[in-house]
Amino acid sequence: MKTVDTELFKTIGSVLDPIEKKIVIVPHHNPDGDAIGSAIGLGNLLINRGHKVVIIFPNDYPAYYNWIESKAKTVIYNSQKKIAKRELEAGDILICVDFNDISRVGNMEKSLQNFEGQKILIDHHPEPKVFCDFLISDTTYSSTSEMVFDFISILDFEKFVDKSVAESLYVGIMTDTGSFSHNISEPNTFKVISNLLKFDINADEIHAKVYHNYSASRMRLLGYCLNQKMEILEEYQTAVISITQDELKNFNFAPGDTEGLVNYPLSISGIVFSVLFIEKEGHVKLSFRSKGLFPANQLAANHFNGGGHLNAAGGEDFDELENSLLKFKQLLPDYLHQLTKASNELKKLV
Ligand code: 5GP
Ligand code: MN
Fold this sequence. Notes:
Radius of gyration: 20 Å
Shape: globular
Distance between the termini: 24 Å
CATH topology of the largest domain: inorganic pyrophosphatase (n-terminal core)
Helix content: 40-55%
Bound molecules: guanosine-5'-monophosphate, manganese (II) ion
Strand order of the largest sheet: 3-2-1-4-5-6
Largest sheet: 6 strands, parallel
């Protein structure tokens, strides 16, 4: 079971003491449910406490998260650069959530580096690169949103939690655990969930708002990818899916439409590693998911300028889609031993 460094949380909390200070919250680029939920949940909490808060998202987030209520002003850096830069210049405290490396904010990196006030990081990814003055980094948390709730509790801020805070943090925990299907062995996760449910939130409704809110074209894209694009590399117990820009256009791609797609091949018995390649302008975005002991983050960091968690990682390759796919396949023999080992360990469990 985890031990929480209460003293550290308290020290960092004291940075927030003068409530007149202006706080800027920043999640990572292409924010997922946890990045959005932890940023908005923390933002709403701090507003309820009397702070001035702005949330700057590096780029826009999927429409199925639009219903989450933010009391703080939100700015999208990519489309509102001037406003975002002005807010960063005016900020006294920067709180970065759900990322471990400043490069994860994309285009916004330089503006963050120039931030002159105190910087705090709240994150659950391994091996954080230090770019903040204060660090709460703990990989035993299911999600940054779960950490934010502990932060709130330890600082005795629960009196400032309301339904909007609880809903946002619930979204973060729900999405980062795949609706409570992975990273759920710590009792603390359910303790936090149980506390959040006391704030009159409707967990069934929240699930439906996120997962029953997709477009028909997104579902057709999923069907197309699984039916026509998924390649099973049996010897390596690996599945790959690659998608071109043209294919995405054919399915009226909207941000978030490929979120979760990489998880599907892991449902196949015997598959321990799943990789999704998405063609972007000038580069390829990769998503990695693994089962058991196979370190998706190591492969991402070693070969694709990336990183992440053991079982969920991502990266980028500045090459053509076809070359990237080829490079990946050529790497697999080097990982055969680790893939086989992970697979054998899993077989013992089934
Ligand atoms: P996803 O596949 O959902 O985009 O990302 C899964 C996880 O991989 C994220 O939570 C994050 O930890 C990590 N990740 C994704 N993309 C990158 C990247 O470009 N660089 C690094 N260092 N980590 C990434
Ligand atoms: Mn997260």
